[in-house]
Amino acid sequence: MTRVRAVALASDTQAEAAAQASLAAGGGALDAAISGFFGAAAVHPGVLLSPLAVLVGGVGEGGRLFDGRSLQPGRGTRRPRGFADPNAIPEAARVPIPTSIATLSFAHAYAHGRSWRSLIEPAIGLAERSGAPQRARFLERIAEVGAGALADPSYRRPLLRLGSAAEGGLVTPSDLEPPELAAAPLVATKLGDADWLVAPETGSGAEPQSASAILAVDAQGVFAAVAYRRVELGRVVDELELLVPLSAVPVVRGVPRVTPGTPLGSGFALGLCIDERARPIELAFEPWRSSLGEVTSGNARIAVRRDPETRLASTRRLSS
Do 103 and 67 form a contact (C-beta atoms < 8 A)? Predict the structure, then answer.
């Protein structure tokens, strides 16, 4: 167990190192979580465009969640005729619209910590050293203009090429316009004898895939997390050295169309435990669930804790 004033913990070692370095440089909890995400994105092609969620909470402010799941494509166009054979659907029809970068930029605007560029700069060098120069250049562009990088032709053209109607997909230029983002309040619930503020229930109830997360708490008592589902089997974006998920729902004849702009996939098992004075004392994440549950002997869980009296922080990792 580690006991300090501020601490970060992550599923990925590279993410954890980047998050700890951000805290050491004077960053807050949200800075650390975002830095950790970009650290992982620098070395893994399936992270940067993955679905994610950002949780932030602190003393006197409750908590809020920023939903960064991918969106169903097809805006600004009529319903296509659809595929007659559900077994003969091309990968292009499953290319969604990632919102990860826009969501992180939006969440960062809520904080008063380190500059956006300072959170990404270490990842640029890391991507270069990892032998991914195109990924490094895209990270550099994100560091320069934030979510504005999504309007850059270097991003729009590959996404349209991979998922356009010409390839059998649903992606349109309208899909690549800035998404509408908002922060949702956390939901109060009881888990065992403890009071928790948890991420709102989202998704279709389908079995969630394993997720990863970066958790942090800073010396001011602010907790923050970025949880994401790394893409393992996605479509390769050669120009960016990235993987895009294949989570969009193809249009099939005789089956109702999923509305364009609908968030895709399950939510994330994130939550803040609060004490009897409504002070947050623990931030927890479970990789195999879509919503946080009670701790049992079979559940994997990582958590960061802070004692509001001593102001000491600690970490905890439970294996399944």
Answer: yes
Counted residue by residue, the chain has a size of 320
Residues 6+ apart with CB under 8 A from 13: none
Q: pLDDT tens digit string along 175-197?
A: 999 999 999 999 999 998 999 99
pLDDT digits (tens, 9 = 90+) for 294-315: 765 457 899 999 999 999 999 9
The domain segmentation of the chain, as residue ranges, is 3-318
Structure tokens given for 8:
């970060």
CB-CB contact of 52 with 270 (8 Å): no
53 near 270, Cβ under 8 Å? yes
Question: What is the tens place of the pLDDT at every residue in 125-138?
Answer: 999 999 999 999 99
Distance CA 280, CA 273 (A): 6
Beta strand 3-4 pairing with 187-191: unpaired
Say what the alpha-carbon torsion angle 128, 130, 135, 141 is, to the nearest 10 degrees.
-40
